[in-house]
Design goal:
Strands 4, 5, 6, 7, 15, 16 and 17 form a 7-stranded mixed sheet that branches. Strands 2-1-21-20-19 form a 5-stranded antiparallel sheet, with helices on both faces. Strands 13-11-9-8-14 form a 5-stranded mixed sheet. The chain has helices at about 10-15, 55-65, 100-115, 205, 240-255, 280-290, 295-310, 315-330, 350-365, 370-375, 435-445, 450-460, 470-475, and strands spanning about 25-30, 40, 45, 70-80, 85-95, 120, 125, 160-170, 175-180, 190, 190-195, 215, 225, 230-235, 255-260, 260-265, 275, 350, 395-400, 405-410, 420-425. The protein folds into 2 domains: about 10-70 and about 280-445, DD-peptidase/beta-lactamase superfamily (Beta-lactamase); about 70-280, D-Ala-D-Ala carboxypeptidase C, peptidase S13 (D-tyrosyl-trna(Tyr) Deacylase, Chain: A), CATH 3.50.80.20. The longest helix is centred in the middle third of the chain and has 16 residues, at about 295-310. The protein contains 13 helices and 21 strands.
């Protein structure tokens, strides 16, 4: 895709203000009918797309697995069940389900209680063999092992191995109550923390918490009264023990007894006693793209390796995605580098042209509604809920690393036509240059050659006038 000329003036100005050279940006604006691009700038240059890579993972999954795909988790009562006592083991085989929430685990255990199971004399065994062991430790990417986005994937990833601490101020008592979800067996958490005066600024640091201690979360500082109610999600400090602590706590809360331990092991070769199914793939794709959920994207990535090559390993998943890219886009995919499924990578590479062609393919595919519905809507939801540009008129996936700012998706222009927009900035000052992405979005919504008459016609059709703003528009902007 040859360059079409210079970047729009507003984009060049925004880059200059951020002290980012124009050569650090790649951009494509493409009509959905596949006609010549309205804009192509460094379109063939391989760049790090950050979380925009999730578009590759999710579209490939929709095409390869199909929109009706669900994950199944078989469960065995392996032994003899009599008078509420299982003389044997409860076995759960994880197969990569990206959304094993606390609520779903609680429903499983309650179902077992309703089946008459009250006591397990053996162990609770978790079979994780569907996925290979993680290649890296949680903190390897950025030295932040307690950030939930760094949680490693697992064949049975319960509650994403993270805790959410909530703080509720009680000014009359001078404290903030502390609660945690989920509750883990053997872990103590301070029930309250003193309130302090002053503005709500770096309140997490003010708490002087001890999140690296897997047995006790203390708050040795204070909580600013001005913060109101807040939540703080954190990955658990000892991920290897998380499942055992969670399962024990939930099982006991339901009145169940456990004679053994929760441990890893192999599942039986006999038919399962029951099988649990996930939500269908499009619902999980929506969670991945709307909220840029890295952990779920990694689960989906490894699930591609499992479904197509028999084991959910990073190598298998890379082969599946790279193969899909080459089969779908030919030589255009030659410069692509596939590292993982989330975009949380320093080595991942794609060109803006390849992303644009992927979006064009997705638009004309049978799974277009599923992908489009998964993208954040500008100014309304997901990672774009705070955007003040093109409110309600753009479905875009965003990406951000310390030296990358990116966006890609579909824009509804003022002439009523939708267009594909892809933009990547890779530079140490990339995030300071985000106004350039906003400027390009505005340009894509009002491209050159669009007549004022067409814009007026579209505005009239939507009920807008030259007088006061439409009430619906005002509500959206708030």
């Amino acid at each position: 895709m040859p360059d079409t000329g210079a970047l729009p003036a507003a984009v060049r100005q925004a880059l200059a203000q951020a002290q980012v050279p124009e050569q650090a940006m790649a951009a494509v604006v493409l009509p959905l009918d596949g006609a010549a691009p309205l804009l192509a700038w460094s379109a063939g240059k391989a760049m790090n797309p950050a979380s925009v890579f999730k578009l590759v993972t999710t579209q490939a999954a929709l095409e390869i697995l199909g929109p009706a795909y669900v994950w199944t988790t078989p469960v065995w009562l392996h032994g003899t069940l009599a008078d509420g006592v299982l003389d044997g083991a409860l076995v759960i085989k994880g197969q990569g389900d990206p959304k094993w929430t606390v609520e779903r685990l609680w429903l499983l255990l309650r179902r077992l209680r309703q089946m008459g199971l009250a006591e397990i004399r053996g162990d609770i065994v978790i079979d994780r063999s569907a996925f290979a062991a993680p290649e890296a430790a949680p903190g390897d990417f950025d030295g932040e092992p307690l950030r939930p986005y760094n949680v490693a994937p697992d064949a049975l990833l319960l509650a994403q191995r993270s805790l959410v601490y909530s703080f509720t101020p009680l000014p009359a008592r001078g404290v903030a109550l502390v609660s945690v979800e989920p509750v883990l067996d053997g872990m103590a958490v301070d029930a309250e923390v003193p309130l302090s005066a002053g503005p709500c600024e770096d309140w997490r640091s003010a708490l002087k918490a001890t999140p690296a201690d897997p047995l006790r979360m203390r708050f040795e500082g204070s909580y600013p009264r001005a913060c109101g109610e807040q939540s703080w999600p954190l990955a658990y400090a000892d991920p290897a023990s998380f499942d055992a602590r969670l399962v024990k706590a939930l099982w006991r809360s339901l009145g169940g007894q456990l004679g053994g331990v929760v441990r890893d092991g192999a599942s039986p070769s006999t038919p399962a006693s029951l099988v649990l199914s996930s939500a269908p793939l499009p619902e999980l794709v929506r969670d991945i793209n709307k909220y840029s959920n890295n952990v779920m994207a990694q689960q989906l990535f490894l699930s591609l390796g499992l479904s197509q090559r028999g084991l959910g390993s990073s190598d298998n998943a890379r082969r599946v995605l790279a193969g899909w890219l080459h089969e779908s886009f030919g030589a255009l995919a030659d410069a692509a580098v596939v590292d993982n499924g989330s975009g949380l990578s320093r080595s991942q590479r794609l060109s803006a042209e390849l992303l644009a062609r992927l979006l064009l393919r997705a638009w004309h595919s049978a799974t277009m509604p599923e992908l489009l519905a998964s993208l954040p809507v500008a100014g309304l939801d997901g990672t774009l809920r705070r955007s003040r540009s093109s409110v309600g008129r753009a479905h875009l996936k965003t990406g951000s690393l310390r030296d990358v700012a990116a966006t890609a998706g579909y824009v509804l222009a003022a002439d009523g036509q939708r267009r594909i927009l892809v933009a990547i900035i890779q530079h140490p000052q990339a995030n300071a240059a985000r106004p350039a992405l906003e400027a390009l979005l505005q340009w894509a919504g009002n491209p050159p050659g669009q007549t004022s008459a067409a814009a007026a016609s579209t505005a009239a059709a939507s009920g807008s006038t030259s007088g006061p703003a439409n009430p619906t528009t005002r509500r959206q902007k708030r």
